[in-house]
């Protein structure tokens, strides 16, 4: 089993689909040369430059072009270089990609994959560091996946491209160079299901994307204290695998959700709402969210560091939830 | 393409798409050519179907048999028919909020279209879409949109796919003068020219965006000028003269099919009704309306055909009465169709 | 006290501020003529056409123009005709209006009011009927208000314009012609606080915008059954008045949130997350959400009617929460 | 306006904004006029400050004393200084992701700017902004943005406010050739021309957007052509010739102040470094880089001044060495400044 970086794994999934299916095309700024991070590097050379289409800086229109191409039977993969710029493509993504299957009464399909790169890494400041995935929970017709590791990145990319719906594939810049083993030919369908990464009995910690790492580290550290933490990688945000969470909470009676997006209106809110709805009577303490403070992303190192949740904050939340009891 | 086959078939109850398919069997290319009399008469007939359809929609709206936000293209029929008459079924057309006529001209079945406007399950979109969001995939009318300018990028995508497939298909997008000030429109001109896509931009410049005249939206008098900046061939034509539209469109289609890239066809026209049904239209002078009524594209083309002796008085009358009959039947089909079940509300969200 | 329609009340609040403060300007499509609904009718005639600026169909840039004008000391009110089109102005609103005060370390201020009209009314279909307010909970730096009645419409408009931050003022088309008394000179500061409209002891129903009416009707109907419902009008979504909700839930032990936006990722999720966090041990049953199904907005009357939550659905939810008990 | 006062004051430790204010006391209008020798020398000095500043930034970045995503404008200084040299403090300038030079040219204090890049509390934005998001309000540098094209609409708003206030102020926005393909840019050209706003569009056409040459982004060779479509006077000038920039800009400022509306100034230039610090720059030929090095705007202007005998050899040397001293001081100020407290992360979210 080869070891790949997260970035290479994205490419591996993409390339596998592109080799298989000549209707898969890539659109994006500078993608022919690999983009600023190199994800699409070498694809044009292997499969022809017509398959990897450099675009002008016109996010909204490029999204529309990809949707139109999808309506005509291609399976485009469009790259938005930073999720911050998806703000320029919201009309096409929300009003057209997500809705046309429904609005047409099923006549149309939009098999589109939107690659976006998100998150805090490298002091890039408020216009290149956001995590905006939760907006898209509120857009019926879109699916949203968010891999936390190379194997999932590879598999979810394959799943996303094969899906007949628009799928937002959210990459975390801070994970690009993390390495792990990736089964050749993909590790099987990863979409639609959360993954239980570590089983435990005292507290469930559900995390997304880069936050899975501090969740695991926290579980490790807490194990030393005799606290048994179950770690769940949400992986798919839409559809959200509530069943796995509820099953876990029935066992642990406590839940903490960890994400890098700001707390208010984040994915943690939907998770909390759904889990309390289905498992309130199993809960021994309130569901807590460990997330960024409600602020834009600052640039300076001490601020950026403070912004991003870390292992310590997860540990503290676990202690808090274990200490919590009726007033 | 011979509209007449389609027309007669339509009367006989075939779906618009089937009609168009049948009609296009013997489709002669290139699109630029001399039209014979029967072809010209068929253009008139199609304009009448659109006119009759929209007048019926208006009446049904007044009677509250149809609800929603309706934008009629009465007075703009020459653009729809002039453009779509030169396309095949598998050429792909995109429209906007004022697209009943575009869809009909492209071969959409008036029955299913009317049923859609009436919110019935037999409508093209099972009642989920509605007037501003027509999809008639079988006829190659891919989609309209309630977002002004929203379909322009989509049409580029269709053109991109067509080019990659190498089938000689073209994509066409209808939009208004108001859409000409939207960013996506400009981004699209750039990309279409950069990639030399087989897309035809059809701007229906009716002088107004909602209640505001074009002069209050831009200093650019002819939207085709923007195309010129990008090296896209652009023509501004009298949009109430169907033959002028057809001529410009013929060149555009030939160019696109020949791999020579995009064309911009700006059609100067006027909507004879309010922006939406119910709009009191206080922002326009009655005299302006009267002037444009004189330029009604149907009356005008009828005069041309008379002058050319291309048809008899009976033909002209029959064009109108057949259209009214077709549309009455469509209304009856629609209003006697079942409503969608409420539970349909949450189906088809994902494919 | 004059009776005004919701629409007139918005105009009354706007006009009051515009008369007081020459730096308040209105920007939007067709606004000089009143816009499609007539909210800004007559203002140009009274205060000069330079104060009510018609714009081209360029939502993104117009938003930017208003922000730039706000940075230069004006207090612009920009109208986005349907919230569906705010998708075209997200970059300016999210990346610039909301963040510039923070990103500049306090050097800049953006006293901007964004009027958006939302909701289902009149079978307009999926591009003219959305409720997207919850996205903006996730955008630090923005405030969001959502009046449910004429008096609040008038007061919140005044508050929004006077606020030194960008405020999203969300109007519901379905309320425009509802009438009620509006105190002259405004009813005092309404921003930042929820309003308890009816006090009750058995269940709290928190509703937003047009959903306040079915919440009240449900309360009325349930009173006849001997069920006492406390009705809270959230009114301000950012900041969210969690205190009022928590106080109410401490009394009633049950909470239902009602909104017209689709359930997943809606405001109800954040409300549920916050209330369970602060009041879990007071809850006798799960917090329920009564909201639109997770679908685009359909056009046909039977579908549209089904889409929008109504009194019956609120009543059913109250019965459900009262019946709920540990398995 | 006399840059020299500002310059000297700067050396003496006054803030940039104070400098500019002092300098502008005697500001002569109109902007279009003959420059005397001391004024010319001061332009050179300002270019040197920017150059020295960015070279220092590059060195500090290499030493990991400064982190983040840095885009340097080395090689483009003639545009920044040519443009801003004709503005007063209360004229409002907007920039983009490559705007260190624009801010300095507008009078931002190098100390506070360097501190911002170094993430310190003494920075203009208390470390919250960073390299792509400079705000130096006191100097009339309103804001930059990490969103390509993002500030173009903002500048229109500033121009709108200026016009309403009737103060004769102008707004200026710097952006790149890549921004010229964004929708907001085109929407902005339309609105600026429609409303005749006192805004000056300064396009720094350096031939590349990231790794892609302009020719792969558009078929339009001169972005000024778009302005022309809107009837906006547009000139394309040699952006490495500060006097050419200044001449075009002088006309633009005079027009804007006189209420004659917007102007578009396209400056052909080249960035002598990578797109961002760390970019290996493989997409450009070394020979191209070498050619452009010959056109270095500072060396070139120095030659002009020499030819005109506008300054002595000592003056030239001093221009550079003073700049380096100033910038060394700025770096020292920045690196010895305190970091912001972590708790600052969640302050100033709302005003
Ligand atoms: C993006 C967007 N902004 C605003 C509207 C509201 N609106 C509907 S039609 C219209 C005017 C469109 O004018 P034009 O493009 O000339 O088409 P016409 O109505 O004249 O056919 C506007 C502003 C919209 N539907 N979409
Ligand atoms: C809206 C947006 N899309 C993409 C990017 C990523 N990006 C940063 S700089 C850049 C190229 C900009 O080119 P240009 O406008 O010519 O400015 P230059 O870098 O040459 O100064 C791109 C695509 C961005 N910052 N913003
Ligand atoms: Mg129009
Ligand atoms: Mg460039």
List the helices and strands and how they pair.
The complex is a heterotetramer, with two copies of chain A (about 325 residues) and two copies of chain B (about 350 residues).
Chain A: E1 3-5, H1 6-20, E2 24-28, H2 43-47, E3 52-54, H3 59-71, E4 75-80, H4 90-97, H5 100-103, E5 113-118, E6 143-145, H6 150-162, E7 167-172, E8 179-181, E9 195-198, E10 203-207, H7 212-224, E11 229-233, E12 236-238, H8 242-252, E13 255-262, H9 267-279, E14 288-292, H10 301-307, H11 311-323
Parallel strand pairs in A: 2-3, 2-4, 4-5, 5-7, 6-7, 10-11, 10-13, 13-14
Antiparallel strand pairs in A: 1-8, 6-12, 9-11
Helix pairs in contact in A: 1-6, 3-4, 7-11, 8-9
Chain B: H1 3-11, H2 16-24, H3 37-62, H4 77-84, E1 92-94, H5 100-105, H6 110-117, E2 141-143, H7 151-165, E3 171-176, H8 183-195, E4 199-205, E5 208-209, E6 212-213, H9 224-229, E7 234-238, H10 242-257, E8 263-268, H11 286-294, H12 297-307, H13 313-335
Parallel strand pairs in B: 1-2, 1-3, 3-4, 4-8, 7-8
Antiparallel strand pairs in B: 5-6
Helix pairs in contact in B: 1-2, 3-4, 3-12, 3-13, 4-10, 6-13, 7-8
One magnesium ion binds near residues 176 and 178 of chain D.
Description of the structure:
The complex is a heterotetramer, with 2 copies of chain A (327 residues) and 2 copies of chain B (351 residues). By secondary structure, chain A is α/β, with parallel strands linked by helices. Chain A folds into 2 domains: 3-181, 3-Layer(aba) Sandwich (Rossmann fold); 195-323, 3-Layer(aba) Sandwich (Rossmann fold). Chain A is built from 11 helices and 14 strands. Chain A has helices at 6-20, 43-47, 59-71, 90-97, 100-103, 150-162, 212-224, 242-252, 267-279, 301-307, 311-323, and strands at 3-5, 24-28, 52-54, 75-80, 113-118, 143-145, 167-172, 179-181, 195-198, 203-207, 229-233, 236-238, 255-262, 288-292. In chain A, strands 3-2-4-5-7-6-12 form a 7-stranded mixed sheet, sandwiched between helices. The mean pLDDT of chain A is 97. With 351 residues, chain B is an alpha/beta fold. Chain B has a single domain (36-337), classed as Thiamin diphosphate (ThDP)-binding fold, Pyr/PP domains (Rossmann fold), CATH 3.40.50.970. Chain B contains 13 helices and 8 strands. In chain B, the strands form 2 sheets. In chain B, strands 2-1-3-4-8-7 form a 6-stranded parallel sheet, with helices on both faces. A two-stranded antiparallel sheet of chain B has the order 5-6. In chain B, helix 1 runs antiparallel to helix 2 (16-24), helix 3 crosses helix 4 (77-84) and helix 7 packs parallel to helix 8 (183-195). The chains are: A alpha/beta (327), B alpha/beta (351). Bound molecules: thiamine diphosphate (2 copies) and magnesium ion (2 copies). One magnesium ion is lined by residues 176-178, 206, 208-209 of chain B.
